[in-house]
Amino acid sequence: xxxxxxxxxxxxxxxxxxxxxxxxxxxxxxxxxxxxxxxxxxxxxxxxxxxxxxxxxxxxxxxxxxxxxxxxxxxxxxxxxxxxxxxxxxxxxxxxxxxxxxxxxxxxxxxxxxxxxxxxxxxxxxxxxxxxxxxxxxxxxxxxxxxxxxxxxxxxxxxxxxxxxxxxxxxxxxxxxxxxxxxxxxxxxxxxxxxxxxxxxx
Length: 202
What we know:
Layout: E1 3-8, E2 11-16, H1 17-65, E3 68-74, E4 77-83, E5 89-95, E6 102-109, E7 116-123, E8 138-142, E9 145-149, E10 153-155, E11 158-161, E12 169-172, E13 175-178, H2 179-182, E14 188-195, H3 196-201
Antiparallel strand pairs: 1-2, 3-4, 3-14, 5-6, 5-12, 6-7, 7-9, 7-10, 8-9, 11-14, 12-13
C-alpha cells in the first residue's frame, strides 16, 4: 500500500494508495516550482549584486582619474607627477642669470588646488625680477641673504626655462629634480595642476 506524506504550503497531507501516488507527484511538482522560483530569486539577486559591484568599481576609477595632480613637464615629456595636496610645499632653486647669485623660491599648492602661491623668496643680491618693494612682503636680512616672507602671490601655472649656468632645480615632495642636467638651455618647463586623466594624456 502506497503511503505519501506531502508538505504543501506549510501543511502536512497524508494519503494512501492511488491518492498517495497522485499526492506525491503533486508534491514533487510543488517542490520543483518552489525550487525554480527560489533559483530565479537568487539569480536576480546575483545580477543586482554584480551590477552594483561594477558601478562601485566604475565610480572608484572615475574618482581616481579625477584626482588633481601636480605636473611638471619639459620638452614634451612628463618629469614629475604627484597628488596635488592642498598646501603641498615645493621649491625652485636657480642661479640668477645676471647677478650670478643663488635664488630660492618657496611655494605651495593653493588650498583650492587651482594653482600655486609664492610664499617667500631668498636671494643674495638685488637683480632683475627679484622682489624689492615693501608691499611685496615682509623684508628682512639673514646674514648674506635677503628674504621676502608672506608674499602670497598667486600663479595659475608656472613656466620656467633652463639657462646656461642657471642650474635650475626643483624640490617636490622630498625629491630633487636637477632640470639643468636633464635638459638643454632654453627648454621650457611647465608646472600646472590637472586631473590625473588629463595629466596622463599629455
